């Protein structure tokens, strides 16, 4: 769940944890930082939330179609006490919370708070529109130590094994244009910007490993060489996951075509505005988390699959529930169920009883019969 683009107050998140626990989903990845917001208190660097948790407005509609903004400030963050409560609440329901702190891209909110972390020296504002930003952390020793300080506080709050460091969608334009970054690449004896990112992620891997944790990142962390302890989350299809599993790394599968729950779930023109794509319930259910390309031994590297709820277009609890249910029920069943026992007709039949439970709980699910 992405609380970076649209913040979700603690009470709403706790209700959502109840709903995923009901589906026997045992992991919640919280996407806590992005261009448009930094959502976790870091004691050593208070400006991350003082400045980074607020944006002055939000773009309406699709970027390609609209240049209109809502003119309304959006903000919010979890205090460290909130995080402790969320983690404890989840734990009581057998859900492990995996925090994600994005680097080196998707970092505009952090750079707005501490411009010295950026690669241009420019003062940025917290992002107000969606998409892939060019702004990126500079890879200096100072920035690496700053982010290790952040991760140091994060691991005190999240007792689980995995710490997610993002790594996706980090354009290298600013690194190419920066004499300091180019000098750093040379000084470290690296070949190019991809190896620079790989070095950056390796430093985080070393840090997390030294504290008994494991780094996980989006499949872009394969570029320029995968850090030795890294686990890969395969989102741009399954190739990244397959390559990582073959190289002996653990992987989590979340390919866009099957598991992006922010995509449309029907072709009905009345569906609420979504980011795009088309991932109906049946497609989620049909997904097989262990790619056929892997040997049984390599297949053991697949830790599981994940449904992603990015919230560019999801502003309310009602809308989040609508995108999540029933598709998360399919994520749970297809992930827990051996391939030969999967049965879509049976799943849909049993979903009728589940719909009654959701109705009783006031959950805004998308009914099966709806076109
Ligand atoms: C991603 O959807 N950028 C991981």
Strand order of the largest sheet: 1-6-7-8-9-10-11
Number of helices: 15
Which word captures the global form?
Answer: globular
Give every kind of bound small molecule, once each: acetamide
Q: Care to count the β-strands?
A: 11
**Secondary-structure element order, as H and E?**
HEEEHEEHEHHEHHHEEHEHHHEHHH
Structure characterization notes:
The chain has helices at 10-22, 47-50, 80-92, 108-113, 141-157, 173-177, 179-187, 193-210, 239-246, 256-259, 281-286, 296-299, 317-324, 327-336, 344-361, and strands at residues 27-31, 33-34, 37-38, 54-55, 74-75, 96-103, 162-166, 214-218, 231-234, 251-253, 302-305. The relative contact order is 0.11. The chain is 39% helix and 11% strand. The protein starts with 9 loop residues before the first helix and ends in a 10-residue tail after the last helix. The model has no long low-confidence stretch (mean pLDDT 97). The chain has 371 residues and is an alpha/beta fold. Helix 1 (10-22) packs parallel to helix 3 and helix 5 packs parallel to helix 8. The protein has a seven-stranded parallel sheet. A two-stranded antiparallel sheet has the order 2-3. The protein has 15 helices and eleven strands. Strand 2 (33-34) and strand 3 form a beta hairpin. The chain binds acetamide (ACM). Residues 168-169, 218, 235 line the site of acetamide (ACM). Residues 168-169, 218, 235 line the site of acetamide.
